[in-house]
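Hey all, quick one. A colleague (J.T.) asked me to put the S-adenosylmethionine job into the tracker so the inputs and the structure tokens live in one place instead of scattered across chat threads. No bug as far as I know, just bookkeeping. Sequence used:
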Amino acid sequence: MKIEILGTGCKRCNDLYEVVKKVVEETQSTATITKVEDIMEIMNFGVMTTPAVVIDGKIISQGSIPKESKIKNWLSQNGKIDLKELVKQQYNALALASNDQQKCCCNPLAPANPSKKVYTIMSEDYTKLKGYEPDADLGVGCGLPTEYAGIKEGDIVVDLGSGAGNDCFIARAETGETGRVIGIDFAPQMLEKARKNATKRGYTNVEFLEGDIENMPLPDKTADVIVSNCVLNLLPRKDKIFKEIYRVLKVGGHFCISDVVLNGHFPKEFTDNASMYAGCIASAIQREDYLSEIEKANFTEIKVERTKTVIIPDEVLQENLDEETIRKYKAGNVGIYSITVTGKRGCDCGGRC
Ligand SMILES: C[S@@+](CC[C@H](N)C(=O)[O-])C[C@H]1O[C@@H](n2cnc3c(N)ncnc32)[C@H](O)[C@@H]1O
């Protein structure tokens, strides 16, 4: 196993190196540890915050000094990546990078970091929508789920993977004072941004909960409408989420979700790339498999309301992938689409009513 510690020589970077070295020695691991201090080399890994740990070419953590127990866990997993942890770290870093005041020695790549571009290639223009909050718009969505969500005044709306709250504030403009909007996200820095935005606007009926959307911190049959924008593709277990959406929707409730789907397969080197995964591209599944998961969860009236072709700019490919991987990717002719899909939750009678 090859462990690389990325850092520009700051104290935290050296502390991280020392703690990883200690754990490697204690566990008698055969892993090799190298320091990477050159800023250009660090950027090539696609990390946004240092210090960072890369194991066998994959970013494992960034912007923090993990506990010894966590490092031991990495070693015992022999480099197997916890994809959820990777996604959480990337979006925490993105939230931090979007705050100008976070520019400091340990965040050398923010906020004009070119590798951020992979997260924003699918974004939509929200600026003319009622409820638009510029500070909540990080450009990381891939559609406009509220457009087809049929939100009514007084509705309870839940937004899965709410980020800085972009879609929640648009939904709030539709539910009005009598409704309620609940955003759920697992990245603490995103939640902090979202809560600040809600406070700034003086909203008392928009709240942000910390949690994993695969196990939402909400009782059964809470929501009239569930929306989500460019999030479900990031879940390693795509089969679980639509069952969870079904559980949290009220009988007769519905969802409207924008997400990325594929037609064709990426080369392995492409799917292994952390930025391409967390950027919602390599994490996507085949379109028919996605729709089939919705059917399997017993939703009715499933409709793809909108399909948009996604083109990855050459600049983004070059920033994140080597030439050979780009060549293989282009030869594969994979179709990448952002779809906005709706579905309805029927009743629990099992067809008797
Ligand atoms: C591509 S961003 C989209 C953010 C927001 N929907 C928007 O359009 O601005 C994905 C968001 O989903 C969150 N996320 C990813 N997986 C999650 C999970 N399993 N549970 C909760 N939040 C998750 C990330 O932290 C991130 O804020």
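Adding what we noticed when we looked at it: Residues 152 and 175 are 6 Å apart (CA to CA). Confidence is low (pLDDT under 50) at residues 101-114.
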